[in-house]
């Protein structure tokens, strides 16, 4: 039986009286947060957090949303039509239990298109109540590109808009040190706060802003580096009508996120007074140094993704959850993380092994989320570059600790080389799975050409010699991997074993040389 079509759109009138009163109260409070970014991630991460703070009475104030690019105007219009409301669905595994819940998020008190309402945007920057600016403009949004300053016309870049807004604020408050802002870029860019400040100062110099202003930017505004982690999958296209029927209203901004969330912010815990996240029970940490948390995520979560992907694709698997539910693949990934990756971090992290193991367990749970279909083919993009950053440091550190070769990571490297056993065709580069199925490869064309040429010339040559050529090619790895004792022979052994394995019995993972 088909679903009845729900016509009513989410509005304040859809809410129960208590919820409606709370949402109306938000709209009456001053805007304390300017949010640059209308996308799924901020709405499923930051705005949800602000709502958690608000529900517990720890935060009063509204959020004004502005889009960073002209293309975001339609989402802002939808937000206005829905009285600033949208629904967040949280679903997945939490401590082994299935979680699925929905909630209307009512923290957005206004939506301003800076390309249409430039003066309104600048007025926000001159508001005495404004305290925080948060952004997610993608990594490409935090890049300096020279722009002309044309009065009355919005800049195209977010850093340019921010520089001009801060200058207006500085002028409005005569350089008052107490009117500096807490600025939190949430883009997935290492040390994004530092980069955003650098861009702001560069624009300020380009446009001839005063030294006093630039000193105020440096001294009285806090550009914080942070690390965010939550999978927000966005609008559930195939399930939307079912959700509308369940909710009793249509929500064109319906958003879906996993239960897990993590945010490390490089700053003193006293900043909780402005942003009471820990106080509200959220998994947020004010830290002196982000590097241990960045390394933890790159080596364990990202490393596990990169480790499993080539091998799993070669054996015909399609998505991450399928890997984790496979008896041998799942055990292989967990053993590699716990017995090789975590031990290799002993000299480079201040985090205890027990903390790293707990984090690893949360990663396995996230990988097993039955509501997320994370395709391995998407993760496979640029796997060579990813391996160098995510897994090669673990291999090298493990060897330097005197532990010998980390066998599971070496198996993963063998799988990577087999995955990149490619040939160039009229339509691009192509590989073949162990089951004989063709797949395209998308990576640096120059690197793919090197791999294709090396594998193409392998006929009539001993496999060990081909492996040596691949591992010693510094263009592929940045240095010669042949220097690692026993690596060429180990990769050769596992490549031979890999060709004899099958999807039904992945004995390859159980073997040790």
UniProtKB/TrEMBL annotation:
Keywords: NAD, Oxidoreductase
Chemical reaction(s) catalysed: D-mannitol 1-phosphate + NAD(+) = beta-D-fructose 6-phosphate + NADH + H(+)
SUPFAM superfamilies given in the database record: 6-phosphogluconate dehydrogenase C-terminal domain-like (SSF48179), NAD(P)-binding Rossmann-fold domains (SSF51735)
Domain Mannitol dehydrogenase N-terminal: 32-275
Molecular function as annotated in GO: mannitol-1-phosphate 5-dehydrogenase activity; tagaturonate reductase activity
GO biological process: mannitol catabolic process
Listed InterPro entries: 6-PGluconate_DH-like_C_sf, 6PGD_dom2, Mannitol_DH_C, Mannitol_DH_N, NAD(P)-bd_dom_sf
GO cellular component, one term: cytosol
Domain Mannitol dehydrogenase C-terminal stretches: 289-498
NCBIfam families associated with the record: PRK03643.1
Pfam families (UniProt xref): Mannitol_dh, Mannitol_dh_C
Protein name: Tagaturonate reductase
Record-listed E.C. numbers: 1.1.1.58
Alphabetical list of PANTHER family matching this protein: ALTRONATE OXIDOREDUCTASE-RELATED, MANNITOL-1-PHOSPHATE 5-DEHYDROGENASE
Keyword match S-adenosyl-L-methionine: no
């Amino acid at each position: 039986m088909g679903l009845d079509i729900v016509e009513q759109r989410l509005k304040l009138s859809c809410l129960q009286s208590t919820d409606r009163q709370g949402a109306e109260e938000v709209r009456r409070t001053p805007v304390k947060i300017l949010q640059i970014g209308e996308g799924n991630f901020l709405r499923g991460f930051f705005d949800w957090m602000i709502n958690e703070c608000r529900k517990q009475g720890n935060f009063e104030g509204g959020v004004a949303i502005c889009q960073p690019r002209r293309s975001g105007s339609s989402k802002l219009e939808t937000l206005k039509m829905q009285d600033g409301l949208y629904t967040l669905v949280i679903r997945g595994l939490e401590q082994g239990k299935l979680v699925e819940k929905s909630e209307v998020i009512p923290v957005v008190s206004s939506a301003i298109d800076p390309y249409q309402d430039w003066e309104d945007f600048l007025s926000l920057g001159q508001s005495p109540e404004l305290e925080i600016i948060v952004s997610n403009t993608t990594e490409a949004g935090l890049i300096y590109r020279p722009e002309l300053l044309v009065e009355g016309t919005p800049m195209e870049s977010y850093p340019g808009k921010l520089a001009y807004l801060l200058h207006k604020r500085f002028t409005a408050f005569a350089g008052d040190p107490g009117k500096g802002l807490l600025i939190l870029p949430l883009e997935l860019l290492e040390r994004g706060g530092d980069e955003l400040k650098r861009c702001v100062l560069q624009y300020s110099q380009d446009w001839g802003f005063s030294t006093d202003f630039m000193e105020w930017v440096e001294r009285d505004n806090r550009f914080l580096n942070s690390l965010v982690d939550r999978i927000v999958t966005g609008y559930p296209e195939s399930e939307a009508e079912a959700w509308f029927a369940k909710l009793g209203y249509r929500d064109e901004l319906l958003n879906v996120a996993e239960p897990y969330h993590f945010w490390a912010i490089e700053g003193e815990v006293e900043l909780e007074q402005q942003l009471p996240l820990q106080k509200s029970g959220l998994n947020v940490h004010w830290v002196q140094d982000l590097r241990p948390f960045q390394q933890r995520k790159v080596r364990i979560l990202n490393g596990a993704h990169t480790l499993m992907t080539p091998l799993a694709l070669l054996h015909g698997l399609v998505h991450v959850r399928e890997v984790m539910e496979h008896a041998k693949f799942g055990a292989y990934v967990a053993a590699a993380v716990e017995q090789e990756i975590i031990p290799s971090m002993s000299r480079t992290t201040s985090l205890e092994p027990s903390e790293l193991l707990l984090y690893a367990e949360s990663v396995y749970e996230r990988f097993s989320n039955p509501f997320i279909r994370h395709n391995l083919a998407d993760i496979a993009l640029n796997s060579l570059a990813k391996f160098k950053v995510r897994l090669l440091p673990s291999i090298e550190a493990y060897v330097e600790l005197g532990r010998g070769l980390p066998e599971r990571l070496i198996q993963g490297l063998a799988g990577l080389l087999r995955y990149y056993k490619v040939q160039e065709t009229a339509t691009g580069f192509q590989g073949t799975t162990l089951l004989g199925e063709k797949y395209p490869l998308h990576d640096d064309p120059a690197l793919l050409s090197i791999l294709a040429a090396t594998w193409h010339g392998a006929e009539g040559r001993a496999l060990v010699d081909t492996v040596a050529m691949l591992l010693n090619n510094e263009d592929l790895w940045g240095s010669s991997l042949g220097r690692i004792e026993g690596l060429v022979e180990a990769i050769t052994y596992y490549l031979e074993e890999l060709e004899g394995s099958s999807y039904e019995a992945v004995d390859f993972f159980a073997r040790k040389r």
